[in-house]
Amino acid sequence: MSIRRCRSLALLSLITLLGALVPPAWAQGGSRYDNPQLGVAFDLPAGWQVSADDERVIAGAPADLAAMQEGDVPQGLVLRLLFGSFSQLGVTDASQLPDVLARLASEGGAAPSVQPATWGNAISGYQTEITLPDDGLTTRVALLAVAGGRIAIVRGLAPTPAWNGGAGAQFDALAQTLEFRLPARDQDLTTTVNAHDGGVLWHTQTPREEDRAVTFGGITYDMFEVMYLAAGPGGVLALNMTTGAPISFIGPWGEADYVDIAIGPDTRLYLANAAGADSAITVVDRAGNFARAWGRRGDADGEFAPGMPRTVAVTRGGDVWAVSEGHGAGIARRLYRFDAVGNLLLTVDLGAVNADLVDIRLDNNISTGALFLIGATGALNMLDSDGEPLVVNLAEEVLQGLTPLDIAIAPDDNVIVALAAPGLDGYGFAEFSVSGKLLDLFGFPYDEARGGEFLHGEYLRPAGLVVGPDGTIYAAETNPATGLSQAQAFSFRGDGVLPLAREALAGEIGASDAFAVDPAAGGGAIGYGQTVRGALNNRYPVHTYTFEAQAGDRVRITMRDASGQGELDPVIRLLGRDQRALAVNDDVGTLAPEGFSQRDAVLEFALSGPGTYTLEATRFGGRGEYVLTLERVEG
């Protein structure tokens, strides 16, 4: 009986083995199969073979693999794994997996029962079992969130009598041996992702206050573009969100050490107070008028341990989330949910959610209600609006060896994480998708040996983090050694208005540096057959060239990253005689000529008439040197 003649379940069409199987790549049964390129390993039963390509693995007895290749039903158990992205399934986060699995498996009828799946070391996932009586097959399939922000579709398949006769139990045991990790190509993500292609929009630095103790912590903002920084014992500092200019201090209110701040739908400011005896949560209006406070010190439910809370978030409905760690009796690490006036609604045992989660910071997605927690250990964790865990230890493989300090959710649902400086070659801020995929990095570690002021883009131990409505990231901290406090606005990609730390240092020591290049190093007149070089950075992101053309000319313009290491993502724009854009090319893609990468730019265009045309050599991202060539081609 042919598998191709089985009912066309949407799920089976999604996870079917596409195309012909490649020859067996690993054939020694009774041992451990390991595929570094896909980032998966599992115990291989005796006598089994494995076939694999760059997206999938299929394993089984040789006769069963041959039957599958012919489109026939195997006689015994077959294991299939298919790897893809969340976006390929239209999934934005792991909390959607059960609904997706049920929908795909329902074939328009009643949705099958879906249960949580804890197969191997998968981050999270869900499974279902389907019997196809017309084809005599039983299959158990799971959608699993795995390392690298990926989905693994894992399926065991056997004739129903064989499944009930032991193949099902064999598959259950095999599934528990699955080990997922970053694919080999992604294992150095934190070194290959460009951390120095962002831009600083403004930077405010204040000296130690003589009349008040100030330590910058959490950040929030209101609808009038006023930003509020928790300033430790100093109260709250209001800043102009557009320019970073200080407006005024408000508070403090009684015994205080305000380490985090959030704004509620009532427009009041909710402060995490690490010092107050009975005011762990302090609420004031934006003018500084005290409204209320709650949160006694103690180990009873709803009370806070000494030095807590250090993190606070407010939901769209006005409920207040806070964390208290270090209790000597009862639950040691607690997640509290209060209403807006301090009534305790919920206590969550964070040790039960993730035993590794310590030194916790939290933020909530205002639009979905999902709650995100990160710790110095324990990686990224997502809870639903009722405090039930959805995903734990997300992005653990990327954050290994790093120390997260704060978290913020962006309007596009991406997760921004502030990190402690791991060394002078590190980065201070990371951007993840909600599936845990690393998207970008930014930051220049502060050089403690150099000392003195923070330079633009530098960080030491960011203590406050928030993302504005336009995606701009705002961060704040205080250097305990110098007493200097800084706040800055930046983007992960694109141009800022301030020179970055690397540029400033190069200028101070007078060294030649491609990242501090003068506009004279690029731009001007260019002729056919000429090749020029230049360097782009946040200060000089575009070089403009002009050339003379005759009627009927067809031009070919190429622009490539001179480093060959992906430091620059070139873009070419061709402007007409009236300065209107005629054509643009970002990535040449898979048709890249020899010596070019897929991200280099190649543009061909037939010009309409004689005159002066303009080339803009610019970038989608990155920084560094480029090589630009202008040619006239036939036809």
Describe the structure in your own words.
The chain is mostly beta strands and 635 residues long. It folds into three domains: 3-186, Mog1/PsbP, alpha/beta/alpha sandwich (Protein Transport Mog1p, Chain A); 195-508, TolB, C-terminal domain (Neuraminidase, 6 Propeller), CATH 2.120.10.30; 514-633, Sandwich (Jelly Rolls). 10% of the residues lie in helices and 40% in strands. It is built from eight helices and 45 strands. A seven-stranded antiparallel sheet has the order 3-4-5-9-8-7-6. The protein has a five-stranded mixed sheet with strand order 37-39-44-41-42, with no helix packed on it. A hairpin with a 4-residue loop joins strand 1 and strand 2 (40-44). It is flat, with a radius of gyration of 29 Å. The two termini are 57 Å apart. The relative contact order is 0.08. Residues 1-28 and 508-517 have low confidence and may be disordered.
What multimeric state do the chains show?
single chain
Strand elements, count:
45
What would the average pLDDT be, to the nearest integer?
Answer: 87
Across the major sheet, the strand order is 3-4-5-9-8-7-6
Tell me the fraction of residues in β-strands, as a range: 35-45%
Based on CA atoms alone, the radius of gyration comes out at: 29 Å
